[in-house]
Design goal:
GO terms for molecular function: metal ion binding; oxidoreductase activity. This protein is of the alpha+beta class. It is built from 36 helices and 31 strands. It folds into four domains: about 110 residues, Monooxygenase (Up-down Bundle), CATH 1.20.1280; about 200 residues, Cupin (Jelly Rolls, Sandwich); about 170 residues, no CATH class; about 260 residues, no CATH class. Helix 23 packs parallel to helix 27.
Length: about 950
Amino acid sequence: MEVDAQIVVVRDRRADALGDFNLLPDETVCSILSLLSPPDVARLACASSVMYILCNEEPLWMNLCLNKENRELQYKGSWKRTTLHGLQVLNKCDDPCKKPLLFDGFNSLFLYKRFYRCYTRLDGFAFDQGNVERKADLSLDEFLQQYDAQKPVLVSGLADTWEAKKTWTPEQLVNKYGDTSFRISQRSANKIAMKLKDYVSYTQEQHDEDPLYIFDDKFGEVAPDLLKDYSVPHLFPDDYFDVLDNDQRPPFRWLIIGPERSGASWHVDPALTSAWNTLLCGRKRWALYPPGRVPLGVTVHVNDEDGDVDIETPSSLQWWLDFYPLLADEDKPIECTQLPGETIYVPTGWWHCVLNLETTIAVTQNYVNSKNFEFVCLDMAPGYQHKGVCRAGLLALEENGTLSMEDNLSSSELTRKKKKVKIDEHMDDLSVAKNGTELEFSYDINFLKMFLDKNRDHYNSLWSTSNCIGQRELRDWLWKLWIGKPGLRDLIWKGACIALNTNKWSKCMEELCSFHNISLPADDEKFPVGTGSNPVYLVHDNVVKIFVEDGLQASLHALGTELEFYNKMQKSESSLKTHVPNIIASGFIFLEDGLYKIVPWDGKGVPDVITKHGMIDDIVPNTEYPFGIWSKKLFEYKKAGMSLEDLISSGGHLNIWPYIITKRCKGKIFAELRDVLSWEEVSNLASFLGKQLHDLHVLPVTPLDDLSYLHMEKKLEMRHKAHDNGTMDNLKNISLPPALKVFFTILNRKKKDVSSRLSKWGYPIPRPLIDKVNEYLPNDFFELHSLFKNENGKLEVHNCCSWVHTDIMDDNIHLEQMNESSNGKEISWRPSYIYDFSNMSLGDPLLDLIPIHLDIFRGDVQLLKKLLESYKLPFGKRFSSDDGCKVRKISYLAMCYCIIHEENILGAIFGMRKELRTASSWEEVEEAVWGDLNVYF
């Protein structure tokens, strides 16, 4: 009997459906689709059958949804429906009767694997016979001796008395906190939050390969009762970050809730802190590698400018499914399955990855103690070599001992044998053999310190965005530790020498004290104070400041201008001089032939130590102060077009530092008193500042003679032609005083890269406003000031430049105690001094209102009005115009100054005024922050 067999051949539709895209892997095509907008993806789905399949994939719509603007999320059963709901087009596009289209002739291993990860179950995925040590009733002494900063351990019994052990279940938490919004962790730069009831509903409906999970470091603020449900286990009594207020310290505690398949992909905890994690509900699978051992499939990138560390890693589930099976037994991580009530300890620097096997609820905290303190300081030290070694071990090094930026720092192609490298010259102070001696990786602080960049300095190097706190916050933290924990000073000093080069600056300070017959500092005075950008020491009745910010040229002009200002102020009749600390000494300290030498300098003339090193590029001739205000304006112009690294490298000799010694004032700075001052005391401060600003802004400015001005103008024109294509020609038809001409050219140059600068600063500055910034700013800054034609037909500007401090902030205002009454009320603090005139400049007086209003007043309009009443001067005259020139409101001028400011003023504004993050225009922000100025003027 014969049977006719008919073979049906299904033609592959990929080539016809994708066209040239057929040449690309499916993963690449999907990545390209994720860059499109939801409407564009919807249109592209109509292009062909394969595009229909690719454009309707749920992981794609998840990315599209999460990459939208910040908002509170509500899941609608699928990510496509959720996205359309957010666009308010769900009703127009949703057709419940429409069946999905099915196509043959197409298959994709990439899509299949992703689909599998979305629907796989993890019931039998536990690793019950784990090799992480399990302990019960672990004593503090045993923990400190055997585990602290050494190896992980899983401890039971630490949460037995917690209320959280009984009440932290999804059902009970929803009953109590269902309408409370918690932060969501996911791979998006946007900040996403969900109400707990919506999130729990999402976990029951979703089929995501990498589900959203709650990872909220602010849960104690939105639900403070949760903090009462648990306590820090007795094994972790110390956290050196606790000297900071909660709003100052880096994130340190998290509520974690996640469904099956969610988790934390491979990472090393921020700042090389240690952590404990207690599970209250569900099961978690953990994998850990010791420091310096990069997991298979993970790539570490290190920025060679600021040391920022970026890690590319698959999701937890993808790693366990795709990479874990490839590992030989000897290459597998340390593993365990964590059960409810158990606490796992993760030491500093350890790589770890977590996968939730079912819905889990946990609480975790990171901390700093004596065992990891130096590692935390090392992580925040400037440079990049040590960061690469801390994360990737010797994989971060080439054979010559330097970081490999071009090659991915991945161990996927390498065996797990320890790679050895030759010792580089940057380790030349080590007591180890050279010339062929090999070095093995060791996670030891003395070993890791070898890779610090000697030429990088904390005060003027780029700050890594991966650091858990900023530069100023780091200095404040170490200072508070030094004062608040005197028993730990040996350890604190070691850490500060790593992070701040404290040993170098302390040596300079002691040499200056000896040279000027000042008693050597007491123990409390050996540490730099404050959060400023230069090392400052309080030594008995003196303040010693060493200028290092932005390199030698910037420091030279900072001191030169401060000395010129002080001289002019002392010769005037201004009452301001009674509120500025007296200068006792000033000059330069420098290293020569291994010895410190000191040269006094009063700001006049060019010292030989500066001439010797060729630091005279920006001198304006025929001026009494060659590095004073006019020379500084030339330098400001050059600085406006330079990156920080270029600025520092152009600063000349690294071992020359200007210094100034002033009288120490009794009392406290406003930053220390802000929370204890009464309204009347703060109101008096506002009046005081108004009076001092008045005296500052009317202080005469040294005029330029014709020869000096011509020299300065020539310098500006040469730099404009070299860098700005001759745009200075716009000012030639306008009659400008010399100061204003310089002022406007600097402002215009700062404006040129404003968009990229704001993009680099990023959050919390809204992205839509960054995109509109160039439309908002004027074409030329002279347009901001009222113009009119004089009798010769030339436009004139009626707004003169004056001395401006530019940096009157809460740590530059001093108050002293007093006992007197005002209107029957006792006042205990009154303002007495204004500090730090090294940022002195010539410019619009309005510039001084920006730091005062935003930093000291925190945007309080009543305090601003109090200052303006005491100020009694207009911030520039405004004239009407008959020639079509637009006269702007003063609020617009203030907002423009904020936008182009070299400091991140906008970050402060949007950090303080969170409601403005959803503003649709700069005009809206302008009115909210500066609108009241228009009423006064």
